[in-house]
Amino acid sequence: QGVMQNKRVRLLLDKNSNCFREKRHGHRRRRSVRGCMVGNDISVLNITIVKNGDAPLPGLTDKFYPLRLGPKRASKIRKLFKLEKGDDVRKYVVRRDVEKNGKTQSKAPKIQRLVT
Q: Hey, how many other C-beta atoms are within 10 angstroms of the C-beta on 61?
């Protein structure tokens, strides 16, 4: 569950606690821990959308943002695009267009572990 506060709290933590690893048997330490309640003092939240609701969130779920940078390792490219072992990974690399001196260039990462 967590600490039901919207501020920092000083807790006495032991080996069963999440934020503390004891160095000796029976060792405990008082640590400052942030509560799990969200308030207006929090500037950034790192969250993941698990399920969409009835209406889209404006600016968040109503737009489609393509991948800017994709995976570089060959096995992770296969996993992302659900490729077979015999498929050519080089065709599925996420490319991005860069303007340089008025010309548009396509850049792609060098694929790692292409042949093992």
A: 12
Determine the Cα–Cα distance for residues 87 and 91; give it in Å rounded to an integer: 9
**Rounded CA Rg of the chain:** 23
Q: Does residue 108 register a pLDDT over 90?
A: yes
Residue type at 1 in one-letter notation: Q
- Computed from CA positions of residues 53, 58, 62, 65, in that sequence, does the dihedral angle turn out positive or negative? negative
Alpha-carbon distance of 33 to 12, in angstroms, equals 10
- Cα Dmax for the chain: 66
CA 39 from centre of chain: 23
Total residue count of the chain as it appears in this document: 116
103-107 and 96-100 strand pairing: antiparallel
pTM above 0.85, yes or no: no
Whether the CA torsion 5, 6, 8, 13 is positive or negative: it is positive
